[in-house]
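Example 3.2
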Amino acid sequence: MATRSIVYDPDKPRLRKRQLTKGDVMTFSVDANMWATRDSTTLSSAVWSVVENDTVSIGADSESSNVSTAAVTGSDGGVSLVKVTLTMADGQVGVVYIEFHVIDREWGRYSDYE
């Protein structure tokens, strides 16, 4: 399974958008290595959470070499917002927001047309 990677830059925060199909499981990672190298620290922990809508679910995450990785499942058509909170060993905290667009092939592009 291929991993979709997002490089975190604390100087250029922005909303990231990704797409998957209902029922698909994809691996996503947030790479904090540039930040860790710049500030001479390491990634201590990361928390992935769905903060808006439940069209995706997040599997267990893991951290290795300043990269946090989690499996994301498209559970229903629509749009979800996921927040990834990165905590560095020196106490710095960074946040990445990822907007997931989940396609439900039975209903067309998205099942919620709000």
